[in-house]
Amino acid sequence: MVSRNIASDLLLIAILTAFQVFILNRIALFGQYIPVLYPVFVMFYPFFRNQFQFLGLSFLLGLCVDAFLGTWGINAFATTVIAYFRTIIFRTSTDTTTDFFSFQSIQWTQFIFFIITSIFIHQLLVQHIEFFKFDRFFEILFNVIVTSIISFVFILAYTLAFKIKQKV
C-alpha cells in the first residue's frame, strides 16, 4: 500500500501540473498530438481514501492545468468527471463484484483496459468541449483516439517506472 497524505497529494499535483505544462505540452507529436499524463493522479489514487477529498483534489489538479493553459475549466471538468466515475470504470473494466478495490488483485489486461477507458473518456470530454462543433465529429474522434494512444504509452511508462500496479 502507498502511504499518502494531503501534503504528498498536493506535491504530486504540483509535479504533475509542472510536467504537463512545461514539458509534455511542448512535445507535439506529428505536429498536433500532445500526450497527457496528469490524469494518472485520478486513475491511481488509492481507493480507500476519502472520496470528497479525492474529488476536490482532482478538481484542483484540472484547475491548475487550466490556469497555465488558459483552457477555462475544461481540464477541471474532465478530470473531475473521471474521478467521479472512477469506481464504475474500474468495476466495468475488471468484472469485480467486491467493494475492495486494488490494482494488485487484477490482471494486466484488466489494468490496461482500465487505463485505456479512463484516458479515452478524459480526452473525449476535453476535446469535444474544446472544439464544440458537431460537424467536425469524426475529426475530433480521430484526434481523441490518437491522443489517447499516445497518452496511453506515456501512462504505461509511468506505471512501469513507479510500479503502480504493485503499490496501489
Tally of helical segments: 8
Low-confidence stretches: none
Q: State which percent range the strand residues make up.
A: under 5%
Tell me about the biggest sheet? Answer: none
What helical percentage do the residues reach?
55-70%
N-to-C CA distance: 6 Å
Keywords:
168 residues, mainly alpha
Architecture overview:
- With 168 residues, the protein is mainly α.
- Helix content is 68%, strand content 0%.
- It contains 8 helices and no strands.
- Helix 1 (6-22) runs parallel beside helix 3 (51-69) and helix 5 packs across helix 6.
- The chain starts with 5 loop residues before the first helix and ends with a helix.
- The model has no long low-confidence stretch (mean pLDDT 91).
